[in-house]
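User: Run a structure prediction on this.
Assistant: Running it now.
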Amino acid sequence: MVDHSASEQAREAVLEAIISAAAKVGNSPAGVRDLAEAYALLERNLVPNAGVVKNKT
């Protein structure tokens, strides 16, 4: 069984890391996308192929 307080502390630590990294990323599209993906993974709502363009030919 997962200790909810430990998992909540880990979630908060990752969220703090994302917030502190956001100041360093600035307006870099790739950096912003990476932070958004990290946050989505943290919240468990990332679509696996989001943003992937597939060749239709």
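The helical segments are 4-25, 29-43.
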